[in-house]
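Customer escalation, tier 2.

The customer says the design service returned an amino acid string that "doesn't look like it belongs to this structure." They asked us to rerun it and document both sides in this ticket. The original structure tokens are below, unchanged.
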């Protein structure tokens, strides 16, 4: 604790009052979250390492699933200050083993030109996290701009062809190994919404908000609880934050005219809810939709009779993946902690938001 107090004392002397991080005696991690949200109004990148260290000291970084906000924020700060990246990384370390992952992932997500060089240095400096660093360097783990919306799934025709080609029984070993590799997607990793929010709070840029907007059609999803949950998180967090942030509301309005037909009406609902401070309604709608999907099952299953008679073999092949995918979807990914969106459903039904 003494080291943290010294760091904060030094920062308080060299930084403007509005940029200085909250004192060590503040209520962490909530104090850190509030500071992060206001950071873009007067950015001070050299104050960020002390905030990350205090978040670590408070235990806020131990669960990656609820730390997407902090990953995105640190990545955004690095992206906005590439010439200061090495200094920021150096000042953020040392961190205890359980929290070192955040620096490695933030560098991988930062998209700064020399992120690979920084990652190589981290691999050497943090030997216990070398495997993680090397997997980003090798491409086994994706950088943020490489993450797909959802995993690729073969359609019914491809499954039938695969069956008759014998692929279902005699798979190529390399192909099978590739298929087993863990896929990180927005559909399966709800914390990525928090990561995008963190980047926005660090930079104030339109890009991460535009990416969250692309997830809005999932708020009307009828087949996947995960996608419906994530789409609802995107819808709710956009409205909740825009209701308290005029700059964000303007960003959403600027984005509206450039959206495809499937996005534009949902974004209009978000903007209206923000303007009227009526975010609770969006939350109640989301819970109702989730409840219906969990009670009645996937919409495509309910609509099977409309497909016509295509033969038992074809129907079985086409529905096999759906049946397997539905296993384990009874739970809704909703974590607590530093998350903005993965914890969004905690706020649904109230007029609260992320302060």
């Amino acid at each position: 604790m003494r080291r943290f107090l010294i760091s904060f004392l030094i920062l308080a002397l060299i930084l403007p009052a509005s940029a200085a991080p909250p004192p060590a005696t503040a209520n962490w991690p909530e104090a850190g979250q509030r500071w992060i949200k206001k950071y873009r109004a007067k950015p001070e990148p050299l104050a960020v390492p002390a905030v990350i260290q205090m978040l670590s000291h408070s235990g806020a970084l131990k669960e990656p699933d609820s730390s997407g906000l902090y990953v995105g924020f640190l990545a955004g700060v690095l992206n906005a200050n590439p010439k200061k990246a090495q200094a920021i990384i150096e000042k953020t370390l040392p961190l205890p083993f359980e929290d070192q992952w955040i620096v490695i992932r933030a560098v991988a997500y930062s998209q700064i030109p020399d992120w690979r060089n920084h990652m190589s240095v981290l691999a050497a400096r943090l030997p216990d996290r070398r495997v993680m660093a090397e997997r980003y360097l090798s491409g086994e783990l994706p950088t943020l701009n490489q993450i797909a919306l959802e995993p690729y799934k073969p359609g019914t025709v491809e499954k039938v062809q695969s069956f008759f080609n014998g692929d279902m029984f005699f798979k190529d070993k390399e192909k099978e190994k590739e298929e087993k590799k863990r896929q990180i997607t927005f559909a399966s990793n709800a914390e990525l919404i928090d990561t995008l929010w963190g980047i926005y709070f660090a930079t104030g840029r339109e890009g991460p908000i535009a990416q969250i907007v692309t997830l809005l059609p999932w708020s009307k999803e009828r087949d996947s609880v995960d996608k419906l949950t994530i789409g609802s998180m995107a819808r709710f967090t956009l409205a909740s934050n825009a209701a308290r942030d005029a700059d964000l509301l303007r960003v959403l309005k600027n984005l509206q005219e450039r959206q495809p037909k499937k996005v534009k009406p949902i974004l209009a609902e978000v903007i209206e809810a923000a303007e009227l401070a009526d975010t609770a309604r969006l939350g109640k709608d989301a819970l109702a939709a989730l409840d219906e999907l969990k009670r009645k099952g996937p919409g495509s299953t309910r609509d099977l009779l409309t497909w016509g008679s295509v033969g038992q073999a074809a129907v079985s092949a086409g529905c096999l993946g759906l049946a397997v995918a539905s296993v384990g979807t009874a739970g809704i990914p909703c974590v607590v902690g530093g998350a903005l969106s993965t914890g969004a459903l905690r706020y649904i039904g109230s007029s609260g938001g992320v302060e």
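Tier 2 assessment: The sequence is consistent with the input. Residues 215-302+316-347 form one domain. The chain has two domains: 2-146, 215-302+316-347. Sent an explanation to the customer and offered a walkthrough call.
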